[in-house]
């Protein structure tokens, strides 16, 4: 892997007052792809005490599968007219979102504005894929309903119960998130959950990669 994290300086306080607290990066694999945005946007949301750099493994693997050589698209993707994935990743400065409902709500607000900013960089009617790790998956599903979210993939996300019940706000967030799982038509794939997770794939329509 040869990671590069490009700070999105334009996503500033004009977009959200939370820009002074959190930050947003575009991931690029050095030498394999340019900084130009020609693909399909993806937003990675880290979990409790997580880091924006946790997106590295997934983003690097996706890039090196799409390009068989630096800046040369693999033949199977060229023939199918698939686009690359543009990975954006949020930095929450290792906030302890699992234990504080207000922090979780703040992360949700920042992620929502990050989606607005990211989509402003693309043509109208572009949709975005959301990846959430652990509590980042709770943040992701709490964003629903959202007509620009094409699908959500969560990893090791505790859906049914919060890790710790220290305040009522976190209970409310989990209740809304669980409601989205059972009622919203957006495709949601939950991977690698724990014993108390709701391990269920909710897909009303097949999700196909952007072309």
From TrEMBL:
Enzyme's top EC category: hydrolase
GO biological process, one term: endoplasmic reticulum to Golgi vesicle-mediated transport
One Pfam match: PGAP1
Keyword Endoplasmic reticulum listed: yes
UniProt KW keywords: Endoplasmic reticulum, Hydrolase, Membrane, Protein transport, Transmembrane, Transmembrane helix, Transport
Cellular component, GO, one term: endoplasmic reticulum membrane
Similarity comment text for this entry: Belongs to the GPI inositol-deacylase family.
Task performed by this protein: Involved in inositol deacylation of GPI-anchored proteins which plays important roles in the quality control and ER-associated degradation of GPI-anchored proteins.
Protein name: GPI inositol-deacylase
